Amino acid sequence: MKGDAVTAPHPSPLPEERGASRASPLLRAEALHKRFSVTPSLLGRARGEVHAVSGVSLSIPTGTTLALVGESGCGKSTVGRLVLGLTRPTSGRVFLGDDEVTALSGERLRRLRRRMQMVFQDPGAALNPRMRIADAVAEGLLVHHPQLSRAERQARVAALLERVGLRPEAGQRRPGELSGGQRQRVVIARALAVEPELLVADEPTSALDVSVQAQVLNLLMELKAERGLTFLFISHDLRVVEHVADRVAVMYLGRLVEEAPRETLFARPRHPYTDALLSAVPDPRPGRRRARVVLDGDVPSPLSPPPGCVFHPRCPLYARLTEGERARCRGESPELRTLDDGVPSAHVACHFAERM
Fold first, then answer.
1. Whether residue 283 has pLDDT greater than 60
2. Range of the domain at 323
3. Are residues 119 and 185 in the same domain?
4. How far is residue 268's CA from residue 280's CA, in Å, rounded to a whole number?
5. Is the pLDDT of residue 270 over 80?
6. Pair (228, 279) in one structural domain
7. What does each C-alpha distance from 192 to 187, 227, 265, 272, 355 come to in angstroms?
8. Percent of the chain having pLDDT more than 70?
9. Cα 131 to Cα 148: distance, rounded to the nearest angstrom
10. Between 150-163 and 180-192, two packed helices, what is the crossing angle to 10 degrees?
11. Cα separation, 82 vs 87, whole angstroms
12. Which residues contact 352 (CB under 8 A, 6 or more apart)?
């Protein structure tokens, strides 16, 4: 397998460094909500609703990477599925360029999906164990490029496998004969086969050994630069996010609590939850160590999220507020806003973020 030297991913330049901030967004998500009914009772009545996503809005300029981070169960993967039209939102809209994903269905949605593909967390589950690798990569070509001859499909599959670092004979194997890293390369090749504009990468390295994670991340960043790809990169690993993201959006219990350029967020988080997440990441660099912030209690149930600010029951800042200020946290849900601190591109959903 080619390119197997373990090296750290190279940081991608910030949007403002490349002029990408002036580009029109390829992806826009507006006020997405998604609620799931829990298992019905014996009488067929729903026992409640899981508030998986609550009012999430995102915008990703063409050619950039937005990382969506947060603890397991916060709704990150649901946002990814909503963006791709794999799950219908309870309310809200998604646009890919000028096309509204949430308004399409059937054949029109199928045609649009050629422009957006997904790299799944578990490459073993993403591939049919009975299908040869070459056939798996060619699936999208059969659906979206039926005009290609068999020879043309075979040539394109061979070129894709070679580009992701696999030998030609890998195409004749089945997923069970490959390592986890090799299977993820196949998943990437399959996603690239239809020449998408947007890739949603859902924890693309979390199921891999540490020794191959950097290889896959380097491959994704190389492909982004070569093909001008736009990424929604979903992850809980902030060490990875710091290397691959242009902007970072932080989720907690279905809501966005902070969004900022990568360097801004890692240097000065403005939300208490972001500060707690970053404090848990070991950083040996001088001057970059943070005091550990330990949050009290457990994440509340999405069946009955707290009123007001959903983070207030665990918020370290809440304990330092007056009773009147605490009442506001308990009763009023904060909206994402820009602080008057000279960073107009950073947004935070906290009533008292100025106290951070």
1. yes
2. 268-355
3. yes
4. 15
5. yes
6. no
7. 9, 10, 31, 38, 45
8. 90
9. 21
10. 130
11. 5
12. 317, 321, 325, 329
With CA atoms as reference, report the closest residue to 69 among 207, 322, 243, 215. Answer: 243
What gap in Å lies between CA 183 and CA 173, rounded to an integer?
A: 11
- Report the Cα 72 to chain-centroid distance in Å: 12
The DSSP bridge pattern shows strands 116-119 and 247-252 to be unpaired
Residue type for position 316: P
Asked whether 14 and 263 are in contact (CB, 8 A), the reply is: yes
Asked, for residue 149, whether it belongs to a domain, the answer is: yes
Q: How many domains does the chain have?
A: 2
Nearest to residue 175, comparing CAs of 121, 122, 218, 212? Answer: 122
Instruction: Give, as one character, the DSSP assignment of residue 115.
Output: G
* Residue 106 to residues 30, 86, 110, Cα–Cα distance (Å): 22, 12, 6
Which SS3 state, helix, strand or coil, does residue 111 take? helix
Question: Has residue 341 been placed in a domain?
Answer: yes
Query: Could you give the percent of the chain with pLDDT greater than 90?
Result: 74
State how far the Cα of 225 lies from the Cα of 279, in Å rounded to an integer: 31
Contacts of 221 (CB under 8 A, 6+ apart): 9, 10, 12, 244
Collapsing DSSP to helix, strand or coil, 224 comes out as helix
Q: Which two tokens stand for residue 143?
A: 């659906």
- State pLDDT tens for residues 147-188: 999 999 999 999 999 999 999 899 999 999 999 999 999 999
Which stretches does DSSP call E strand in 44-202? 49-61, 65-69, 91-96, 99-100, 116-119, 198-202
Distance CA 348, CA 356 (A): 11
Alpha-helical (H) ranges within 45-114 are: 76-84, 106-112
Helix, strand counts (H, E) of the chain: 12, 12
Paired sense of beta strands 116-119 and 337-338, if any: unpaired
Query: CA dihedral in degrees (53, 57, 63, 67; nearest 10)?
Result: -50
Dihedral sign, Cα of residue 58, residue 243, residue 230, residue 64: positive
Strands (E), the chain: 25-37, 49-61, 65-69, 91-96, 99-100, 116-119, 198-202, 230-235, 247-252, 255-261, 337-338, 347-348
Last residue of a domain, one of 217, 252, 287: 252
* One domain, residues 245 and 312: no
